Amino acid sequence: MTPKGDSHTQKSSQQASLEWLSAEYHDLNGDHIDILEGTPTALEFARIVQISRPVLIKRFQASSCKWSNDYLISKMGSRPISVAVTPNGRADAITLGPNGKLYFAEPAVEKMSMKSLLDNLSDDTCSAGDGAAAETYYLQSQNGNVYSSGFFNGQDDLSEFETLRQDIPSDVKWCTEALDKSPEAVNVWIGDGGSISSIHSDPYENIYTVVRGQKHFTLLPPTDGWCLDERLYPHATYVRNAGDLVLQPSPEISPPVRWASILNPHLPGCIPPEAHPIHISVSENEAIYIPVGWWHHVRQSSITVALNWWYDTEMRGMSWVMLSYLRDMKDVPSGNTDNEGSKAVV
Amino acid sequence: MTPKGDSHTQKSSQQASLEWLSAEYHDLNGDHIDILEGTPTALEFARIVQISRPVLIKRFQASSCKWSNDYLISKMGSRPISVAVTPNGRADAITLGPNGKLYFAEPAVEKMSMKSLLDNLSDDTCSAGDGAAAETYYLQSQNGNVYSSGFFNGQDDLSEFETLRQDIPSDVKWCTEALDKSPEAVNVWIGDGGSISSIHSDPYENIYTVVRGQKHFTLLPPTDGWCLDERLYPHATYVRNAGDLVLQPSPEISPPVRWASILNPHLPGCIPPEAHPIHISVSENEAIYIPVGWWHHVRQSSITVALNWWYDTEMRGMSWVMLSYLRDMKDVPSGNTDNEGSKAVV
Q1: Are strands A244-249 and A235-241 parallel, antiparallel or unpaired?
Q2: Which 3-state string (H, E, C) describes chain B?
Q3: Of A8, A106, A122, B167, which is the most exposed, with the fewest CB atoms less than 10 Å away?
Q4: Nearest 10 degrees: CA dihedral of B302, B308, B314, B318?
Q5: Chain A closest CA to B184's CA: distance in Å?
C-alpha cells in the first residue's frame, strides 16, 4: 500500500498535504535555530533531539591537536587514503553526462598519501568552486573512515586513519548518553572551496564539528523536501581513462537514484518561496547537530577539516513514520524525460 | 488552507493516507509498551517522551497516605467538592437525548462533602456500570483541582482539595526535569465501577497514578484516531429538574463538539480491525505515562482514587504538526444526519 491511494487524479491532494505540512511546520517553528554557548548535558541534548531541529554548539573541542598540514602529514606518513576525485567538485551529485543525459555521478575514488591530498587543496578562495582546477579532491569517504560500526561492536576493521584515532574521540559523550547508543560511524572530512556536497538528507542523527576552517550549511526541514524537485537519475561513476576523468554510466540494470535536482539551494530564487532555508556557518571548535531527515547542502571556503559522528536514528515512535510518509507522498519523475532534464537542474 | 486540498473527490486519498500512517506506525511499533520496574531518571524519561509511547511504571509511590474513606473524610471534613453527576456514569460522552437526537453530554456538577461522595460509591463490582444505581457520582473536575497553573505561576487560586495537598506532590520530579517545565494541572479523581471515561485524547503529556483501586485503560496511538468515527454532536448538559437529572440541550449557537462515536472501544468488534488497542490495567502505586495525542478510554472496577499530572505539550518540532495533520485530515460528519446517529454509537 502507498499513502497516495490508487489514482493519479489524486495528485493535487498529495501536493496539498505536503504544502500544508510544510506551512504548518514553519508556522510553529519559524526559521529559528538555537545557539548553545557550550556543550549540552545529556538531558539537555535529549530534549533537543525530541524537537529535532538543528542546534549550533559553541566551544565544542573535539581534541587539542592543531590539524595543520604538517601535523596531518607527520601523523599519516605515506599511508594511502581514499579520496574522491571529480572534475567539478561535485561528488554524489547530478551531472550532465557526455551524451546529454543527466546522471547521479559518484566520484572516482583514488588512493593517495595525505601529502598528495593536501598538495591538491587550496586556501585560495578566489579560485574555489569556479572549476579552474582540472580536478577536485575531497576526502569524504564517509564509511566510518575513522571508526565504523565494527569498532563499536568489538570487531574492529581497519581504518585508513588509525594513526589519527588518538586525536578523534570515538563518540560524543552527551550524545551517546542522550540516545543511549554508540555511534554508527565516525568520519573525517578534508576538502577546500572547490568541493560542494549537494543537498541531501541522511537517516542518521549527526554531530558535525569543524576542527579547521569553516563550513557553510544550508538546511531545510524534512517538510520542505517537496521543494527540492527530487527525480530519478541513472547512476554513473567517474573513472580514469588515459589520464582523464570520464563519467561512465552504470549498467542499465542499476536502479535509478532518487536525488534532489536543485543544485544551488543556497542561492536566492533557486527554491520555491514556500521553502525556508536556514543558512549557518560552522567555525573551528563549533559543532552543529543535524537531525535525522534534515536536508543539508554544505560548502567550505578554504581548506577545511571536519569530523562527524553519525548515530542510528530512533525507529520507534512517530518520527520515522513521518519521514517515510513525506518521502512516499512525493511524485518522483524521471530526471531525463521530455528533454527537460537539464532544465530541472538550476 | 487545509491538508485536504480543494475537492471532495479526494476523500479516498485522505483515507488512504490515514490508513497508510496507521499501518506503518503499527508495523514499526507493534502493540508493545514498556513496563518499568521503578521510576525512570529524567534522562530515561526524556528518551521515552521522544518515542511518545505509553509506559507502565511500577513502584511509583505518590505519597505514603492510605487514601481510605475514613482518611479522606477526616482530611476533607465538610468542605464542599464539585462532583460530576450523571444518570448513567458517562460524563463527557455521547448520549441519546429525549428527543431522539445524540448529544455530547456534560454532567451536572453538584457540590457535596467527601462523605456524601464516598457514600454514593460502591466496591460492588457486580452492579458496577449496569445502570442499576439511579445516579452515578464521579469526582473528575480535572481543572487542576489540586494544583492549577496559577499555583505554579505564584498566583495560587483556591483548591477544593487544599487539605489534601500535603498528600499530593505538586509535580513529578523526573517528568518536570525531563520536560523542563512545571505541570499545567494536577488532579485527584475518585469514582467507582459505575463511571467510564469515553475515549478521547488530550493535548497534554500525562502522568496518571492509582493510589487506591485499579484503572483499566484502552489505549490507541494518534494514528488510529481515524478508526473512532469522530462526528460533530450538539452540546447538552445534565441539569437537576424537580429532583431528576434531565439532559438540557445547549442553545443552538453553541458550537458542536467533535467526539468519537465508539462508546466501547475495549470490547471486541467495536472498532475496525486495522486499529490495535492496547489494554492495560494500572494498580495501586503504579503509574502510566499517556503521551500527548494518545486516545484513552478508562474504566475502574471498584472505588478508585487516582492522581494525575498534566504537562503542556511541546509545540516545537514535528509532533504537534503531525497531530494536527491527523486531526485535520479526517472527515468529521454530523452525528445526527440521515437518522444514522444512533447507529453510529456502538
Answers
A1: antiparallel
A2: CCCCCCCHHHHHHHHHHHHHHHHHHHHHHCCCCEEECCCCCHHHHHHHHHHCCCEEECCCCCCCCCCCHHHHHHHHCCCCEEEEEECCCCCCEEEECCCCCEEEEECEEEEECHHHHHHCCCCCCCCCCCCCCCCEEEECCCCCCCECHHHHCCCCCCCCCHHHHHHCCCCCHHHHHHHCCCCCEEEEEEECCCCEEEEECCCEEEEEEEEECEEEEEEECHHHHHHHCEEEECEEEEEEECCEEEEEECCCCCCCEEEECCCCCCCCCCCCCCCCCEEEEEEECEEEEECCCCEEEEEECCCEEEEEEEEECCCCCCHHHHHHHHHHHCCCCECCHHHCHHHHCC
A3: A8
A4: -10
A5: 19
Give the nearest chain A residue to B314 (CA atoms): A51
The residue ranges of every structural domain in chain B are 33-337
Q: DSSP string spanning A142-177?
A: -SSSSB-HHHHTT-PPP-TTGGGGGGS-SS-HHHHH
CB contact (8 A) between residue B46 and residue A51: no
Strands (E), A221-334: 230-233, 235-241, 244-249, 257-260, 278-283, 286-290, 295-300, 304-312
Q: What letters, b where the CB count within 10 A reaches 16 and e where it falls short, cover A188-207?
A: bbbbbbbbbbbbebbebbbb
pTM for this entry? 0.93
For β-strands A102-106 and A235-241, DSSP reports them as parallel
Closest CA to A121 of A245, A244, A302: A302
> In this structure, which CATH number among 2.60.120.10, 1.10.443.10, 3.40.50.300, 2.10.70.10 belongs to the domain A33-337?
2.60.120.10
Is B5's CB within 8 Å of A12's CB?
yes
A7–B12 CB contact, under 8 Å: yes
> Do the Cβ atoms of A12 and B23 come within 8 Å?
no
> Which residue out of B14, B44, B50, B201 would a mutagenesis test of the A interface target, given it has the greatest number of A Cβ atoms within 10 Å?
B50
Q: Is A342 exposed, middle or buried (0-12, 13-18, 19+ CB in 10 A)?
A: middle
Closest chain B C-alpha to A29 CA, distance in angstroms: 6
Share of chain B above pLDDT 90, in %: 82
Q: Tell which of A311, A318, A319 to mutate to test the B interface (max B CBs under 10 Å).
A: A318
Task: Specify which residues A84 forms β-bridges with.
Answer: A109, A138
Q: Does this complex have an ipTM over 0.85? A: yes
Q: Per the CB < 8 Å rule, is B17 touching A15?
A: no
| Interface contacts (A, B; CB < 8 Å) | 147
* CB-CB neighbors (< 8 A) of A29 in chain B: 316-317
A236 grid coordinates: 554513473
CA distances from A342 to A198, A242, A262 (A): 16, 28, 11
Nearest to A317 among B3, B50, B179 (CB): B50
- Give B126-168 pLDDT, tens digit per residue: 544 444 558 999 999 989 999 999 999 888 778 999 999 999 9
Chain A residues touching residue B2 (CB < 8 angstroms) = 16, 20
Query: Do the Cβ atoms of A3 and B20 come within 8 Å?
Result: yes
Cα–Cα distance for residue pair B100/A250, rounded to 1 Å: 70
